[in-house]
Specification:
This protein is α+β, with helices and mostly antiparallel strands. It has five helices and eleven strands. α1 crosses α4.
């Protein structure tokens, strides 16, 4: 079975304790609001409230914990029920890798502690984002999360099917400026009308 609401919060509390932190301290260490993991945020009028996938990914990045180690703190392990499609860059564009709603349909999967139907992972090819992202790395995005800010690492798919991992450098409502971290690759400028979707990178598996 996937990790339950209680198990997710148990794992976060155990991780905070392991690092000698309070729940608030763990949230701040991950660059989140200090109240993100407070007990008052875990339920509302008897209804469970879950930490967001982005919050969990930021905690894992900040602590260097693997997905399996996080699940182990909850006394469980990830299962295919909490997996998302893994797509290569070539398959992420035109060619049938997305269903009619635009979400992945591939059988190769990436396991996560918590997943949503709109999340996909993409295997990086090329060296335009090295040394941060290397050939074969898996980046995770939630295609329902479309708000991006200057400096965010993003995955972009153009209307003609090209998919790329870049750093968003702004550009306003008419165009998007995209930088590569590798200076051997020039920046890209895309008209907004030529962008099918652009989502912020939540996590990378190296």
């Amino acid at each position: 079975m996937p990790l339950s609401h209680t198990e997710i919060w148990t794992a976060l509390d155990a991780l905070a304790e392991r690092r000698g932190l309070s729940a608030s301290g763990l949230a701040k260490a991950a660059g989140l609001d200090a109240t993100s993991f407070n007990p008052s945020k875990r339920g509302n009028e008897g209804r469970p409230r879950w930490p967001s996938t982005e919050s969990l990914m930021r905690v894992l990045q900040a602590t260097g914990l693997s997905l399996g180690e996080f699940a182990g703190l909850a006394g469980d392990a990830p299962t295919p029920d909490n997996s998302i499609p893994l797509l290569g860059m070539a398959r992420a564009g035109a060619g049938g890798a997305f269903d009619p709603q635009g979400y992945g349909t591939e059988t190769d999967r990436t396991d996560l502690p918590v997943a949503t139907p709109t999340m996909i992972s993409i295997r990086v090819t090329g060296d335009s984002m090295s040394p941060l992202y290397r050939e074969g790395d898996r980046v995770v995005v939630d295609r329902a999360v479309t708000d991006v800010r200057k400096g965010d690492r993003v995955v972009v798919q153009t209307t003609d099917g090209e998919v790329m991992v870049k750093e968003y450098a702004g550009g306003g409502s008419a165009r998007a400026h995209l930088n590569s971290l590798n200076p051997d690759h020039p920046p890209r400028v895309l008209a907004r009308r030529d962008i099918d979707w652009m989502s912020r990178v939540l996590w990378v598996s190296q």
